[in-house]
Amino acid sequence: MSELDWQFAHSYRTLPPRFYASAVCAGFPNPHVLVFNTPLAHELGLLADGADFDPQTHADVLCGNRFPAQAHAIAQAYAGHQFGHFAVLGDGRATLIGEQRTPNGTLADVQLKGNGRTPYSRRGDGKAALAPMLREYLISEAMHALGIPTTRSLAVVRTGERVYRPHWPDGAVLVRTAQSHIRVGTFQFAALGGEVSDVRALADYTLARHFPDLTPEAQASPYCALLHAVVARQARLTALWQWAGFVHGVMNTDNSAISGETLDYGPCAFLDNYHPDTVFSSIDHHGRYRYANQAPMAQWNMARLAETLLPLLDADEHRALAQAYAAVNGFMPAFEQHYRTKMAQRLGFADNEQAHWHLVECLLHLMMRHRADYTNTFARLTLAQSGNRNTRLDGTDALFAADDFAAWHQAWQQALQGCPPDTVAERMRTANPAVIPRNAHVETALAAAEQGDMQPFHDLLAVLQQPFRHGDETCRVYQHVPAQDEPYRTFCGT
Ligand SMILES: Nc1ncnc2c1ncn2[C@@H]1O[C@H](COP(=O)(O)OP(=O)(O)OP(=O)(O)O)[C@@H](O)[C@H]1O
């Protein structure tokens, strides 16, 4: 039976000691591995291809009861603006056990989430409940399959103890991997002590780890280049969220990853019917992180990052500010470019010229007016364009029967004239997912898992791992849109 081949680096520990604290092993009574991501283990170099592996024999390591011999477990310090209010935070329920050297030469953080208290836990228990950890596994893997940069999920381990939450649910640990867990909030933490040398140390570390082409050795203005590079990644990420109809729900600066990966799957969810004001988080009373506000909020987070870098940008305050403004102001044009291109592809266009974008805008407006389902509308158009004209999908009937939609459809088909139909259909099939992790289906799978039945979870996961299989019968079950009482707001726990 194979072992997991941990090849750890501990580069984060080269930062000044105030950036982290040592973490200790957990003592869970009866850990049981519920789900293990074998393909990801291969990608990370943890398992050889074809290896005979039983994750159960690694339950103690995967839940944090025992650290691998090569581990130097730490909790990372960070700060963050949470719903606009600044707080000093840190991993209160997470432990970085090491940075795995992957076969392609990069480092990937291996972090346990929910494995108990750390020096940053404040009054929290450091634990996590089963359903939210399985939810993070499911949605992060769905995001990955959709081509959206994200932290990944290696395993979920039920710990064998109950945690103090409503209904005393089972406790669990998620094993999460990431290009890194450096956050905008990590830079805010670095700047907090007032030592420019701390910000410089973190910036240099970030450059070396994520942007090796931009290091001080390679660039005249490495810190300005770093800011531009992070802005570019965040702009692309946010555009992909908008394209997919993903509402992150808690875009605090401590959840904004410098790597440009989606981080923290607490109150997130995907749109059912299209409406720009959709909010899923029950604590987001003013809609700060509503669907339509995600790009401005991501840009706001970039401004917070820029503030921390000001002393490194230029000795002259005005010149530093000018550089910061220029970088942060680059967010919206980059976002628009990515978003419009992806949305034009949804309608089969290769480019996002104004006339094509106008068609997208008009369709979104019609979808809002007719309360049409976002994903299913594009999936139905895709099937129709592929010659499958009679396929009806939930949440699209009112739209497709409307006169204003017929006029739009005619204009769209006219715009497509001259484009090879097969190319258009193929472009649409790859730009429009057939399935997304709809809240209702996710909740059903999690409820079954809480009762000890993991089959619905695995069935849903299998479909989400191949989201572009239009017309597939298995997909159809998950294209069903259950009736909603609340039109635009859904509540989901974290
Ligand atoms: N049960 C808990 N015990 C201790 N600290 C906690 C607990 N739950 C959350 N925290 C801490 O509260 C802060 C905000 O929590 P949030 O839910 O945004 O993060 P998270 O989901 O725990 O972690 P991440 O952002 O890494 O996914 C973080 O510093 C987190 O570590």
Automatic annotation (TrEMBL):
Superkingdom: Bacteria
Catalytic center residues: 254 (proton acceptor)
Binding site for Mg(2+): 255, 264
Family: Belongs to the SELO family.
Annotated binding of ATP, by residue: 90, 92-93, 113, 125-126, 176, 183, 264
UniProt keywords, alphabetically: ATP-binding, Magnesium, Manganese, Metal-binding, Nucleotide-binding, Nucleotidyltransferase, Transferase
Glycosyltransferase keyword on record: no
Record's function text: Nucleotidyltransferase involved in the post-translational modification of proteins. It can catalyze the addition of adenosine monophosphate (AMP) or uridine monophosphate (UMP) to a protein, resulting in modifications known as AMPylation and UMPylation.
Pfam families, A to Z: SelO
Gene Ontology terms, MF aspect: AMPylase activity; ATP binding; magnesium ion binding; manganese ion binding
Protein name, per record: Protein nucleotidyltransferase YdiU
EC number(s) recorded for this UniProt protein: 2.7.7.-, 2.7.7.108
Catalytic reactions on record: L-histidyl-[protein] + UTP = N(tele)-(5'-uridylyl)-L-histidyl-[protein] + diphosphate; L-threonyl-[protein] + ATP = 3-O-(5'-adenylyl)-L-threonyl-[protein] + diphosphate; L-tyrosyl-[protein] + UTP = O-(5'-uridylyl)-L-tyrosyl-[protein] + diphosphate; L-seryl-[protein] + ATP = 3-O-(5'-adenylyl)-L-seryl-[protein] + diphosphate
Names of required cofactors: Mg(2+); Mn(2+)
